Amino acid sequence: MLISDHIFMKDASKIRNIAIIAHVDHGKTTMVDGLLKQSRTFRDNQAEMSQELIMDSGDQEHERGITITAKQTSIFYGDYKINIIDTPGHADFSGEVERTLNMADGVLLIVDAQEGPMPQTKFVLAKALELGLKPVVIINKIDKPARRIAEVEDELSDLFLELATDDSQLQYPIYYAIGRDGKSWKEIPANTDEDADLTPIFDAIINDIPAPNVEANGGLQLLVTALQYDSFLGKYAIGRISRGQARRAQAVALIKDEAISSARIDKIFTYRGLMREEVDSAIAGDIVALTGITDAHIGDTIADKDAPEALPARLLSAAPPGPPGPTVRHRPATPPNTGTPPAIRATDPAGPTVPPAKTPRTPSATLPGPSPLPGQSVRSKECRPARAPGWQRPPTYPAPAPARAPPPPAPGSPTPVL
After folding, report:
1. What is the pLDDT of residues 378-387, one digit of tens each?
2. What distance in Å separates the CA atoms of residue 367 and residue 154, rounded to the nearest whole number?
3. Would you give the end-to-end CA distance of the chain in angstroms?
4. Residues forming beta bridges with residue 280, ordered by sequence position
5. How do residues 205-234 score in pLDDT, each as one tens digit?
6. Average pLDDT over residues 88-100
7. 243 - beta bridge partners?
8. What is the pLDDT of residues 141-168, one digit of tens each?
9. Other C-beta atoms lying within 10 Å of the C-beta of residue 273
10. Alpha helix ranges (H) inside 56-198
């Protein structure tokens, strides 16, 4: 399907790019399900309307029940186009989160109403605030019997105080939701069974998340943030257009480190629900997938052929967090050899003081060798009981039975020849 005339294709202020971030199992993908269904992205009789975890399309994601790779989708709410990036919540896939945050202008931070902020919550929020993204907090699963909303709000406040890089980041809206049921509120509801929908979340995306801060005029600039493959069209280079406009069959420059090569855009795709839609052109601020640029890799810049300018690959090469490395201990520096013992080189106005001679210690009855481990004791030879002559250490395993001699030959039998 070819799209050519939408209001968001001419005005970047009608575009919202958001990433949904959270700790694992706090309800990111379930929230995306609700946004997709309530935005009328699917028909009423479409199979996705009865499915859950729609964005988890991989086999391992179905098997393990977690999001492994970040995925893009788009929904339409009124005159606005909302590009949504569903990110992994497991710490092993934090690199996916770091890369895809470059395409977003704001984040929906989802926190479990019972568990509160978890380690991965802190990690992804720190990366979002470092990039200057606008956060919208959603306290999810408020129908849990063990919910503790007030304590979670206090923990979030402490977390923002610790991670904020600007005073403006300390002002963030909080919404309350039951993502599984597709319900949300601006205030804590007295009864979670009352009718509600995700309209407050849609309004928060439109009103609290800023429009893309991009340059509509000028040469094309796009930072390749993700790659996908298709058996028919080959490689897709995915990213947000930071400046200018991308057109079908446009000649571009591919900037890899400091090397510049020529390329040409074959097709341009945007997202709608779970599908890609081909377009003739895309403006700055939109997230697109380009084909035809077979040498593109993550961190490369696709730029205007006549004025190629590279974009900084922010966080694209950062390694995901891992276990702390070994602690390296350094020996203290040895004082220079000046011919004077260290004890004599003292800052004493009366002159150097020679320490008293040490009293010789009587040799202790200890065994030679390494020092004992904590909790172990070393017994001297003098403390051992005397052993009787001919004493042998008892075996720790049963001794083998002695070999039996062969029986003597029977009378009259031939003698064997050796």
Report:
1. 444 444 555 5
2. 59
3. 95
4. none
5. 999 999 998 988 889 999 998 888 888 999
6. 60
7. 215, 221
8. 999 999 999 999 999 999 999 999 888 8
9. 17
10. 59-64, 94-100, 119-130, 149-163
- Largest alpha-carbon pair distance within the chain? 118
Q: What residues does 109 pair with on adjacent strands?
A: 21, 137
Q: What angle do CA 40, 41, 46 make, to 5 degrees?
A: 95
- Whether the pTM exceeds 0.90: the reply is no
Distances (CA, A) of 216 to 12, 81, 246, 283: 8, 17, 11, 7
Question: For 61-69, which contacts have Cβ atoms below 8 Å and span 24 or more sequence positions?
Answer: 66/24, 66/25, 66/90, 67/28, 67/29, 67/93, 68/93, 68/96, 69/93, 69/96
Which of 243, 263, 248 is closest to 305 using CA atoms? Answer: 263
Question: Which positions ≥6 away from 112 have C-beta within 8 Å?
Answer: 23, 25, 26, 27, 118, 139, 140, 141, 144, 152
Identify the CA nearest to 30 among candidates 170, 180, 195. Answer: 180
**Residue entry with tokens 């009103």:** 207
Which amino acid would we find at residue 226?
Answer: A
And the tokens for 194?
């009352």
- Helix pair angle (119-130, 149-163), 10° resolution: 40
Please compute, for residue 380, the number of CA atoms within 13 A of its CA located in the half-sphere on the CB side.
6
Nearest CA-CA partner of 82 in 22, 40, 30: 40
Q: Which sign does the torsion angle of CA 156, 162, 165, 168 carry?
A: positive
Report the C-alpha gap between 210 and 131 in whole angstroms: 14
More confident residue, 353 or 312: 312
What is the C-alpha to C-alpha distance for residues 8 and 206, in angstroms, rounded to an integer?
13
Closest alpha carbon to 318 in 118, 101, 58: 101
Strands (E), 133-250: 134-140, 174-178, 183-185, 221-223, 226-230, 234-243, 245-247
